[in-house]
Amino acid sequence: MIALADCAVVVSNARDAARWWNETMGFAVHSIGEEGGHSLMVAPPGDRFVLHLCEGFGAPEPGNSGIAFVTDDFAALTARMEELGVEFTEPPHKESWGSVAKFADPDGNIFWLMEAPSQFIRAETRRIATTAPPKPAQGGGSRRPASGAPKRPSPKRR
């Protein structure tokens, strides 16, 4: 079996970042190794996917992380975030499909926050990936690699 485990977010200080995620967003803090050991990770309580707070692998690269969070109580969560001084780089607003906002952590990493129905969130947290990759399609399809590059000829044997 294989599962998606984490997403790395470069931060200037992993302990400070973990404290911010815990105090501001209510995320649980996890570590590998002894307390505060090999790595610090944060996740919404009970979530199986974590943000790996990477310190010392290079300077933080502020900007859009491409990471999105969903909530079924958008108004309450964004109000709490505003009270705690979270910087919204794109203020909470409604779109035709629901509400959305973008917020920054203290290192300038930007995250998306979107409104989603409770049923969707519950289903996603229970969903488990299949244990095997899908089988290739049968039939006379192309034998080219997925990249579209031509297949290399086999080396000639002597």
What keywords describe this structure?
single chain, 3 helices, four-stranded mixed sheet, 158 residues, 8 strands, 2,3-Dihydroxybiphenyl 1,2-Dioxygenase, domain 1, alpha/beta
In short:
It is built from 3 helices and 8 strands.
Structure commentary:
There is one protein chain. The chain is an alpha/beta fold. It has one domain: 2,3-Dihydroxybiphenyl 1,2-Dioxygenase, domain 1 (Roll). Helix content is 20%, strand content 33%. The chain is built from three helices and eight strands. The protein has helices at 14-25, 74-83, 118-126; strands at residues 6-10, 28-32, 39-43, 50-54, 63-71, 87-95, 98-104, 109-115. The strands form two sheets. The protein has a four-stranded mixed beta sheet with strand order 1-4-3-2, with helices on one face. The two termini are 41 Å apart. Residues 140-155 have low confidence and may be disordered.
